[in-house]
Design goal:
Layout (H helix, E strand, L loop, with lengths): L2 H5 L3 H24 L6 H22 L40 H4 L1
Helix pairs in contact: 2-3
């Protein structure tokens, strides 16, 4: 399951997939505890799927990324507005790292 595929789904479908994934994780953990799980990497895969679903849901809650249609992903050169360059703030000077003196330097 890829994040791009999840972004195309509706909130109801994402909720259903979340419930399914959590149920699957519960069953995998139970099988692992009993000793019936042969491939324990499945647990990690399901946990990653849950994290992906939660990421998409949180993005929508915060308005970070809306549902994007494939047509909107193609940039159009004529549609880009001209942007004036803003002055760049100066970066803070980098402090040198403090190092321990060697035993030879102390004498």
């Amino acid at each position: 399951m890829k994040v791009d595929e999840l972004r195309m789904l509706e909130v109801d479908e994402l909720g259903g997939r979340m419930r399914t994934a959590r149920r699957e994780l519960y069953e995998l953990r139970f099988k692992h505890a009993v000793g019936q799980l042969e491939n324990s990497s499945q647990i990690a895969k399901v946990r990653h799927d849950i994290a992906r679903i939660m990421t998409v849901l949180h993005e929508r809650d915060f308005g970070i990324l809306a549902s994007v249609s494939p047509d909107a992903l193609e940039p159009d050169a004529s549609a880009q507005p001209e942007v004036e360059s803003a002055p760049v703030a100066e970066e803070a000077p980098v402090k040198p790292k403090r190092t321990r003196k060697k035993a030879e330097d102390k004498s």
